[in-house]
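Table S2 (continued). Query chain:
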Amino acid sequence: MTRILFVCTGNTCRSPMAEAIFRRMAEQAGITAEARSAGVAALDGQPISEHSRKVLEQRGIEDNLCSKSLQQEDVAWADLILTMTMHHKRIVIEDYPEAIDKVYTLKEFALYSPEQEANLKERESLMAKLQLQLATGEKPDEQDMNRLLELEQKIPSFDIVDPFGGNLTRYAKCAEEIEEQLQRVLERLREKQAADDDPDQAAAK
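Corresponding output:
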């Protein structure tokens, strides 16, 4: 069983929608998985936004979801942590560095390729280096700056835009985008489950 933690800011819009929609889609697909959600700046026990609730109701989902702040227990529980933006991902890794190997943005995991992963790792390394140079008053290396700009052009945006403050249509579009990415996540989980069930066949491939 795969345990997935979805993370956004306040845990009232994007991540609870992802949690509830994923749970329904996994059940329909026959994928054995559990889901939770949390926010990096959430207040515990707040109801999810009214528009989020309506979007879920339109899909026949009536989960009684409330906001929850991200805690060590959630990070330890999860096999996979999927954040809504790169900013959320960086916060999770900064606060819980031991989880670095299981933290991705939702889009990053859904659209995974070895090339993209290598580009992302190089970008993060360059950004950390440049930030350190700026903090110590050192002049940034021009070659590093050019390479960072080159990587930025290659790497697509992995953020799910926050619908907070928008109308119901904006929330519906956000939910559709989440749903589209979750379909790809489920395809990856289905492949993993098949490999776990038949490791000899997976090795033959």
